[in-house]
Design goal:
Blueprint: E1 6-8, E2 11-13, E3 17-19, E4 41-43, E5 60-63, E6 66-69, H1 78-89, E7 95-100, H2 105-115, E8 122-126, H3 143-156, E9 161-164, H4 172-181, E10 186-189, E11 193-196, E12 198-199, E13 204-205, E14 211-215, H5 220-233, E15 238-241, H6 247-256, E16 260-263, H7 266-269, H8 273-287
Parallel strand pairs: 3-16, 4-7, 7-8, 8-9, 9-10, 10-15, 15-16
Antiparallel strand pairs: 1-2, 5-6, 6-14, 11-14, 12-13
Helix pairs in contact: 2-3, 3-4, 4-5, 5-6, 6-8
Length: 300
């Protein structure tokens, strides 16, 4: 069988397939459909320093080839996460990546400091959260702010950090370079694209928040282009995501330069999607007589 293991910032994953934050909980509700031991890593839902209630409903709606969500990063906070979710995930032979969110620099630093002594492998920093001190602009949309917060988080983090980049910018390479300059150990992209849907019969926005994050197959061509650009702009490992629904999709991202991939929206219509993609990649490598997955990573 072909070698499928990859490394992200010195952490070895048995294969390059992981879950996308916010689409898999912390694995509990999916564990009856997916053998978590088969996955390279489980990426948790965003975790903040205190519980977040999220946005008002309705906050999810389907679109052509995708969905819009405005969940608002609802989560029970770091205390519940450490007591409930980490012990659950530790039962499985998979890497644990904790997605961290916050509304200020202090919020992020509190969470990564709390996680310093916890048995988790990597931290994925969601910089699409609004910076409350800067009038609500996301850290991930201002390269100077992104570089600064990356440096501050690195001072407190014991585990390697992955900066999750927003696609809602003019030039993704500028943001990738800012994360690298701040000391990020890896980057992941893309987060959702900002979108909107209107119910013409109710004459109202489909989401209470008016706008939401677009994900699913509709965004894959944009995501693939940005991953390719970012992988060529920095020397960091890149985790690619955005509309991956099959092994073929995942292989495209690997060829574009991603070291690993995250599967998100596909989990909602097929809870076993991640495990099927792992098997599909293995089959592809064997059929193509590829001995090691690194033979295809970044070949374009």
């Amino acid at each position: 069988m072909s070698k499928t293991s990859v490394q992200i910032a010195g952490v070895e994953l048995k294969n390059p397939v992981m879950t996308a934050s916010g689409t898999f909980g912390s694995g509990q509700e999916f564990s009856e459909y997916v053998n978590l031991n088969r996955l390279g890593a489980v990426v948790t839902k965003g975790v903040a320093n205190v519980p977040w209630p999220g946005n008002p409903v309705p906050r999810v709606t389907e679109t052509a080839s995708g969905m819009l969500n405005a969940i608002g990063l609802q989560n029970p906070g770091i205390d519940v996460f450490c007591s409930r979710d980490i012990p659950f995930l530790r039962q499985y032979d998979t890497r644990i990546i904790v997605n961290v969110c916050g509304r200020s620099e202090q919020d992020y630093c509190e969470v990564v400091s709390r996680l310093a002594e916890e048995p988790v492998d990597l931290l994925e920093i969601n910089v699409s959260c609004p910076n409350v001190k800067e009038g609500g602009i996301a850290f991930g949309q201002d390269p100077a702010a992104l570089e600064h917060i990356t440096k501050e988080i690195k001072k407190h983090a014991r585990q390697p950090i992955i900066l999750k980049l927003s696609p809602n910018v003019t030039d993704i390479t500028v943001m990738a370079k800012a994360a690298e300059a701040g000391g990020a150990d890896a980057i992941s992209l893309i987060n959702t694209l900002t979108g909107m849907k209107i119910d013409i019969y109710r004459r109202k926005f489909a989401l209470a928040n008016k706008t939401g994050g677009l994900s699913g197959p509709a965004i894959k061509p944009v995501a693939l282009r940005m991953v390719w650009q970012a992988a060529h702009a920095v020397s960091l490992p890149v985790i690619g995501m955005g509309g991956i629904a099959s092994a073929e999709d995942a292989v495209e991202f690997l060829m574009a330069g991603a070291t690993a991939v995250s599967v998100g929206t596909a989990n909602f219509h097929d809870p076993s999607a991640t495990e099927k993609i792992v098997s599909g990649i293995e089959d592809f490598l064997d059929r193509q007589n590829i001995v090691d997955i690194h033979e295809i990573i970044g070949i374009l």
